[in-house]
Design brief:
Two copies of one chain form a homodimer. The first copy, chain A, has about 325 residues and is of the alpha/beta class. Chain A has two domains: about 50 residues, 5,6-Dimethylbenzimidazole Phosphoribosyltransferase, Chain: A, domain 1 (Orthogonal Bundle); about 270 residues, Nicotinate-nucleotide-dimethylbenzimidazole phosphoribosyltransferase (CobT), large domain (Rossmann fold), CATH 3.40.50. Chain A is about 50% helix and about 10% strand. Chain A is built from 14 helices and seven strands. Chain A has a seven-stranded parallel sheet, sandwiched between helices. In chain A, helix 6 packs across helix 8 and helix 9 packs antiparallel against helix 11. The two termini of chain A are about 30 Å apart. Chains A and B meet through helix 2, helix 3, helix 4 and helix 13 of A and helix 2, helix 3, helix 4 and helix 13 of B.
Chain lengths: ~325, ~325
């Protein structure tokens, strides 16, 4: 990011008709956007949303509230415009692209971008979730998807996901990468019972013991315990940062993918905004670990990119504040 | 509010393609909107913003960071479209009306609605801020302003204010109405020093002692320590609730006006959304007192209606979620 643009923006914001600092985090966001984009007057519209979909072998172990078939059913719902993320995408004027990087079923629909690496990851209780080559292919698929959207002119990337079982993978990743206990990173997902949650924790603990990932090597952790959509998110974030495009992360799963990207390159965190903090307990740990403060706290636990899309208007407001407000001089207002 | 509509909406939301409750506060908002509007499919667009402006005699005591002339200068800035609230109004497609209920100076501009009660309140360290008749006129001016906007078709009312010295009035009101100490309700306003803040607290304490308001009578408190814009906000809120129109409160000053309205009629609180929690410490007290949880926490301390306007997209998202999302049946998605 450009430190000069940040300093220049900080000075400019104090000339606007408001007490210094009175727009709080909006002022911080405006500075960060200037730094990321290296633009004096950064824009975030139009935004683009990438929803990466993948299935998880670990669902065999009975860790999820919904059956695996829901991943493909929800992909169809996204394509037909009926899911929550579609509603919020229309509200903010975002283009939305669904990318199948690893759904277990086949979808024949030309509105879907198919970059399928495999029909779901392997059950990571029994073997690594992905091979090294598969993981790399998923990261590349994410990066390509982001670059395509960026080439089409989006000014802000919103990342989301769909994948039955993916809070299990994210809990495992976040536990290993942060050093937290599994119990601290496991939540109720889309609605499992207390008993099933305990089972989910035990499965993850056993899997971590058996896979024995190297916590200092994010790619090793991703390969052993991750998911195709999670690896794709890491890749999309790396590509957006490379292009100077701000990224809004969604919830727990997205943030686990972002963590892997940040471990690969710590500067990536300067390009990230945390859309919200979800009900999944591990999300807070992951956000703290990468030093990202959430913009919203609305008790969401849906995924798809919904929390990030809901937070987009805050970034839009920060950008407009920078470009549209009058200065004390322009408005002939007395500065104290 | 309609309890039937709330129950009906609660059932409907569980048929939508998302785990039950996974949209968190958005689901609560959708239910509340259905109750307020008595509509199965409530709408909040287009929104309308009322910015009430008034001056405060108490500024003679040196309680504010900016000189009194800034109230009139900022009214001109609002009319010219250069203030923060103008920027955020354009972003959300809101009509914006500035209403002069008590500015100290004259503004000759036909874009301004003039319902001036007096050229600023009296210095409440020396006498009551307003007479009974003035206070009633200000409440009526607020109600009329809201009713005019509602007649023009707005579906959600955003209330904001401008008035140098008005955090002093709000701190006094909130201290008396909640029973908190003045020290707990006084903050740095638009940017005073620690020393000046102590002075501000002492002035307020002394004024409360001298005016001796009746904490059980909100109109008595408002008359003795309030402001024209604050009384107008109370009136606007009462009118909007009467018309079944949801209201988004802005910050500390708005919430002090809302408190008076809620004390007059406790059912009013069901019509209110707290846009955000500001940096002024008394705001949190006031919100807790009326049982309103803020939608945003962005460290704002500007007023004008900015925090409420920034929160509007959350209400819009809740309304769209209710009206646009597909059900499990419609989308052929397996419900657990």
């Amino acid at each position: 990011v450009s430190k000069e643009r940040i300093t220049e923006t900080a000075h400019y914001l104090d000339t606007l008709t408001k007490p210094p600092g009175s727009l709080g985090r909006l002022e911080e966001i405006a500075k960060q956007l200037a730094g990321i984009t290296d633009q004096g007057v950064p824009q975030v519209s139009p935004p683009g949303i990438l929803v990466f979909a993948g299935d998880h072998g670990i669902v065999e172990e009975g860790v999820s509230a919904f059956p695996q078939e829901v991943t493909v059913q929800m992909i169809r719902n996204f394509l037909d415009g009926g899911a929550a993320i579609n509603v919020f995408a229309r509200q903010i004027g975002a283009s939305l692209q669904v990318v199948d990087v690893g759904a277990a079923g086949e979808i024949d629909d030309d509105r879907l971008v198919t970059k399928k690496i495999a029909a779901g990851t392997a059950n990571f209780l029994k073997t690594d979730a992905m091979t090294e080559a598969q993981m790399e292919a998923a990261i590349l698929a994410g990066a390509e998807s982001a670059n395509t959207m960026i080439a089409r002119g989006i000014k802000c990337l919103i990342v989301g996901e769909m994948g039955i079982g993916n809070t299990t993978a994210a809990s495992a990743l976040v536990a290993v990468l942060t050093g937290c206990s599994v119990e601290q990173t496991v939540g109720h997902g889309t609605g499992i019972s207390a008993e099933k949650k305990l089972h989910k924790s035990r499965i993850i603990e056993e899997a971590i013991r058996l896979r024995d990932p190297n916590p200092d090597n994010p790619l090793n952790v991703l390969k052993k315990l991750g998911g195709y959509e999670i690896a794709a998110i890491s890749g999309a974030i790396l590509a957006a940062a490379q292009a100077g495009i701000p990224v809004i992360m969604d919830g727990f799963i997205c943030t686990s993918g972002a963590m892997a990207a940040v471990r690969l390159n710590p500067y990536i965190k300067d390009y990230l905004f945390a859309g919200h903090v979800s009900q999944e307990p591990g999300h807070k740990m992951a956000l703290e670990d990468i030093g990202a403060a959430p913009l919203l706290d609305l008790g969401l636990k849906l995924g798809e990119g919904t929390g990030a899309a809901l937070a987009f208007p805050v970034l839009e407001a920060a950008a407009r504040m920078r470009s549209e407000m009058a200065t004390f001089d322009e408005a002939s207002v007395t500065n104290k």
